[in-house]
Amino acid sequence: MTLRRSVGLKLLGDVVLTQRANPLFEPLREPLHAFIRKLKSQVSQAA
Fold first, then answer.
1. 16: how many CB neighbours lie within 10 A of its CB?
2. Among 25, 3, 1, which residue's Cα sits nearest to residue 14?
3. Whole-structure pTM value
4. Whole-number Å distance between alpha carbons of 47 and 45
5. Cα–Cα distance between 7 and 33 in angstroms, integer?
6. How far is the C-alpha of 26 from the C-alpha of 42, rounded, in Å?
């Protein structure tokens, strides 16, 4: 994963977490969580 994507994912995750009461981000919460879990499992398998 490139540095830009990593930073973008980090920023998006922070916004979704800090704005968890905002209904605008509700549709992103679960797919983002699933994506991060999958990404972390792939990174740990590669290490």
1. 17
2. 25
3. 0.74
4. 6
5. 16
6. 26
pLDDT tens digits, residue range 8-23? 999 999 999 999 999 9
Report which secondary-structure segment, H or E, holds 29. helix 26-46
Rounded to 10 degrees, what is the CA torsion of 10, 12, 18, 21? -150
Which structural domain range is residue 20 located in? 3-46
Looking at the structure of the chain, the number of domains it has is 1
- DSSP secondary structure letters along 1-18: --HHHHHHHHHHHHHHHH
Q: How far is CA 46 from the centre of its chain?
A: 19
